[in-house]
Prior knowledge:
This protein is α+β, with helices and mostly antiparallel strands. Strand 14 and strand 15 form a beta hairpin. The chain has helices at 16-35, 52-68, 89-98, 103-113, 143-151, 187-203, 262-271, 283-292, 294-298, 306-323, 326-334, and strands at 73-78, 116-118, 121-122, 125-126, 130-132, 164-166, 169-171, 173-176, 179-184, 214-218, 228-231, 234-237, 241-244, 247-251, 255-259. The radius of gyration is 21 Å and the shape is globular.
Amino acid sequence: MPTKLSDFRPIVVLSVIYRLFSSIINKQFMNVLEEANLIHTAQRGFMKKGSTLEHLISLRTALAYKYQHKQEVFAMALDIKNAYGSVIHKRFISILKKHGFHSSVINLLTSMISNSVMKVLVNGFLSSPFDANVGVPQGDPSSPAWFNLYINSSTNIQEKLKGVQIFNITILLLLYADDIILIANTKIEMNSSLKSLGCELKKIGLALASKKCKLLAITAKAKLSKALVTIGQDIIATSSSIEYLGGICTFKNYFSWSSDNPINKISNQLASTKTSNLYLNSITTTLMSKIISLPRYACSFNGINKNSLDKADIMVANFVRKAIGLDYIIKISHF
């Protein structure tokens, strides 16, 4: 459980009308991004032509290939400090202009992300209103697309760095929104990649949360490496496992892959969810599905079998149906 204020991420509860409006805008915006190829192929988060499965397979293949060929390899799972909450509005608008978006589109998106007034609800107490002058709200249907375009410049490192060559394909950077994997052949290459990525993120006001970043480094002799890498002033030692998109890669003289016990996690999540805070028009319903992340479990390294997936789907559906009173509505309609 989070213990520090910085560990919490606010979820914005929006009106049904705005969410519907934003969903319509997002659909059109995503079409433009994909048709114009404005988002680098390294980014698979919330994209129509990508999924968690592609990145998980890429990561697994790169590590397995290096291991089998007795070659050194470094893989690092990276975390960005308050990623969505650190988006600078003026910089985002400048990115839209750079890509040639029409002024009417820019004005519309500016009105959606700027001049917002919010309140915070904590333990039943509502704060005074304040202006949200930075960040894109988690809970807005358009935020993932906005963030993908905002962070896209980080892929510039692809042009400067070597990466890992697997079957004539270069694997260096894997992005799923703000979930990042860096892969390198050596300690020197990894440090160079971290430095380059850090510089690109700094240009747009983002930074890596070094304490949440994990390194998995394997020597040519198929042993855990003792090599150290640096993020700013922080030194990162290798660990025996890294997690990415619901999958866990563990190394104990060989690689093993697993998903992180989804059925138990889902049961615990549902047990701790307050039904009094769950409404049909609340972001809580969306939030719960994101936390549980059923698609990620289905695509994780070993995945989960179909029976477990069906069981999880039924658990969530039954909980939501009862919490928002659909059982009662159905009984009345039958009467």
